[in-house]
User: Fold Transporter from Halomonas stenophila.
Amino acid sequence: MSIKQHQHAHWSSRLAFILAATGSAVGLGNIWKFPYMVGESGGAAFVLIYLLCIGLIGLPILVAEWLIGRRGQNNPANAMADLAKGAGRPRAWMLVGISGILGAFLILSFYSVIGGWSLYYTLNSVTGAFSGQDADGIGALFNAMLASPGLLLAGHSVFMLLVIGIVARGVTKGLEGAVRTLMPALGVLMVVLVGYGMTTGHFGQALTYLFNPDWSALSGETVLAALGHAFFTLSLGMGIMMAYGSYLGREVDLLKTARTVVIMDTVIALGAGLAIFPIVFANDLDLASGPGLIFVTLPLAFGKMGGGIIVGLMFFLLLTFAALTSAISLLEPVVEFVEERTPLSRVASTLVAGVAAWGLGIAALLSFNLWSEPVLFGLNVFDLLDKLTSKFMLPLTGLGVILFTAWQLDRHEVARELGLSGTAAGIWHLVTRFIAPIGVAVVFVSSL
Ligand code: PHE
Ligand code: NA
Assistant:
């Protein structure tokens, strides 16, 4: 039951929706997180498991979230509650929506901290801070940033302010045009950087590392990390795609649209890997550098290549932009929930949600300097927020979404809505009823 009735806006076209969904999916997860996870998890075996998770689990859940959102025409918690009620199922299903909203809130807090790093590196590119630096110099620059709470706070605050400003105006405006021009630009820049990787003489080694698996390196922990990242990178298990689906018209082909978004997301992530690992090998950098990986590798290339200042500036600008479009999508479901459940206006709801996430982000950024001691399970606040969301909340919420769609909604209606019949409908049911949920459950239980 929503306290307020308000007219739900709609995307102007299928293209607009694809752009917004891609804007949410493509972000720090692809360019910052994916490469360092590969580096920490030993390469190709992780990559292949990740791709499997994307295809067999991520894609069906993406479709399921859109379907629920479009049918519910409401914030994720209310949409789940209404649909459950309509199908004569327990209202408790709305917990899935609520846990998704909570996940989005938690992720936003630390995501914005990394958005701040990206802003700071944009500035560094302009001032020529990378020119003539060796690996030690670039590493020192990164460590100095981490050691400075003031610098991190400034970046985090500016980034969050931008997010709040954009969301307060409503996502359907403005976002489309921006994503339409910036996504192709990001693609072109990726090609330039992969091209640079080919000149380092270590491109072959990077290819082997990324695609030739050493299965002995694989552990249950790695598989769970790959699964969690499949959710993170597609913005799943957080109510985000549900929220976006709630602005979606009837005519859109969900399966085809999902395929487009998934392919774009995967191409950008693999492109980032192909750009970064040749530099890692050429400069003998530590594969397991963790969250600092792109910040200690790419600037080395920018400092050496001709026109590096321009390329570096463009890269960090686009990274900041990709992070912004994702962060906007993280704040959106939280705001939608507050707005539809309280008497607060859109602007007030945005402020409340944004400032709360900003406050939690401060605890996350202090993890890199003043407050690096573990607070729980041997993890500091930053790692705790990251692991708790990616490894637990997202997979569990996603499991709820897929179980609900596959087992609680009328399967014939769902097949019709997706335009599936015969064998295709059979495969859809096999994947959503058994393969995806069992996959999530097995990975999850075996890692405990
Ligand atoms: N999918 C985004 C990325 O890959 C991150 C994100 C996660 C955005 C969850 C929204 C929700 O960077
Ligand atoms: Na992504």
